[in-house]
Each structure stands twice: as C-alpha cells, then as structure tokens.
Amino acid sequence: MNPGESEGREVAQSDLERLRDDLMRFRAERDWEQFHTPRNLAASVVIEAAELLENFQWQREDEGL
Questions:
Q1: Is the CB of residue 59 less than 8 Å from the CB of residue 65?
Q2: Global confidence as pTM
Q3: Could you tell me where the DSSP H helices lie in the chain?
Q4: Alpha-carbon distance 56 to 62, whole Å?
C-alpha cells in the first residue's frame, strides 16, 4: 500500500457513511421505511432499469445513441 492510500480509503469510507446517514435520515423524515421491503426495492430496481433500456429498444447494433 502506498503512503496516503490508506488515508484516501478512510476519507472515502467517511463520505459513504455520511451519505448513508443522510439517506437514512431522508427516508425516516418521510416515513418511507414501511415501503422499503426487499420485494419493493427489487421491483423498483427492475422498473428503473426497464426505463433506461427503453432508450435502446428499437436501436440497431450499428447505431449509436
């Protein structure tokens, strides 16, 4: 490990923890936890992915987006 590399990981971890805490607080303020079941979260991921895929639905392989 290079000098300073460990420090960078600690900063990144700290940023991720802060982001997670902000998201949890955002969810709690809106009482959304009741909707965040594994089934609902999985369905939401699939639905969002389908919306992205829709942009490519009728595109030929040789076409760029």
A1: yes
A2: 0.54
A3: 5-29, 38-53
A4: 12
Backbone angles phi, psi at 32, to 5 degrees: -90, -10
Residue corresponding to tokens 């939401």: 44
Q: For 54, which DSSP code?
A: G
Query: How much is the pLDDT for 24?
Result: 95
Phi-psi region of 58 (alpha: psi -120 to 50; beta: other; left: phi over 0): alpha
CA angle, corner 47, sides to 27 and 37, nearest 5? 40
Q: What is the mean pLDDT of each run of 10 residues along the chain (65 residues)?
A: 64 90 96 95 96 91 75
Look at residue 3 in the predicted model and tell me its pLDDT.
58
Of the chain, the end-to-end C-alpha distance in Å amounts to: 40
